[in-house]
Amino acid sequence: MTRVLVRNPHSGDRKRSLRAKELAEKRGFDVRNSTAPGETLTLAREAAEEGAAAVVACGGDGTLNEVVRGVDEADGLGRTTLGVVPAGTGNDFADNVGIRSVEHAFKVLDSGRERRLDMGMVRTSSGRTDVDERPRPFLNSCVCGLTAEASTRTRPDLKKRLGVVAYVLSTMQHSRGFEGLQLDVRAGENRDPVWQGEAVMLLVGNGRRFPGEARRQANMEDGLLNVVIIEDVPAIDYLSKGAADKLLRRGASHLTRVKVPHLVVDASKPRQFSLDGEMVERRHLEADARQGAMRFAVGESYQPTPEETRADR
């Protein structure tokens, strides 16, 4: 059966993408190249509708998100193996599932090693009837606040030159003029109150744990979202060295953490939400963990139940 590589030729430094194309063609993949923004979604949907055995994203986290959305729109998640070849600026999800390089990705795909992984899914509302409210997935995280809004100001040339460090710099540059988020956060089937007030950031993780985790992989098979709300902390200089560590330190009084299968967020006005780097502006958002929704090719270092230290719990 056909294996399809959906390739974003403009991801990252482009060199890894070209290498991926070469390796894919040698292995008999059907390589489909996007030629316009958003076309990776269409190519992935078409591949799934045609019955491809595997649909693999070649690019960064944004490309992977679009590929998963395309397969989902074709109702293909149950029958199609998903994979990723890390060729973008940010390759967080690939790292979380144990994919270390372009070459390693193809070894993993050839091995047939896969797991049923959770997928985050959001439903949003802007109050406008002309906005498409179709549910959208996220694999790594859904972020609202300082980091999300700063990422929209990150220059493409800076991303190309500095990679993920560019987002950090933009965040720090933007922080002095950031207006806090007025949020009402609820969870569970009964929409029980979790938190209400002014926040700096709302972090919702599927493949990522946040505070004090040093980018550790979350449990992606437990059917739970890892939620962190960060209140405004006037005493922290966001531009100082180590500011991020202070902001996210475990046990801090300005952090609220919960693990829930369902989350409801209402903002006082439309705010930017980053879904694996893809931006939507909404006032209302509902997020669910779809347990075991994806059949995903994973590396040998992937941990189905990653060990949590006492500080992580």
TrEMBL record:
SMART domains: DAGKc. One of its GO terms (biological process) is phospholipid biosynthetic process. It comes from the Archaea. Residues 1-126 form the DAGKc domain. GO terms for molecular function: ATP binding; kinase activity; metal ion binding. One of its GO terms (cellular component) is plasma membrane. It comes from Halogranum gelatinilyticum. This is Lipid kinase, YegS/Rv2252/BmrU family. InterPro entries: ATP-NAD_kinase_N, Diacylglycerol/lipid_kinase, Diacylglycerol_kinase_cat_dom, Lipid_Phosphate_FormReg, NAD/diacylglycerol_kinase_sf. Its cofactor is Mg(2+). The keyword Acetylation does not apply. Keywords: Kinase, Lipid biosynthesis, Lipid metabolism, Magnesium, Metal-binding, Phospholipid biosynthesis, Phospholipid metabolism, Transferase. SUPFAM superfamilies: NAD kinase/diacylglycerol kinase-like. Signal peptide: none annotated.
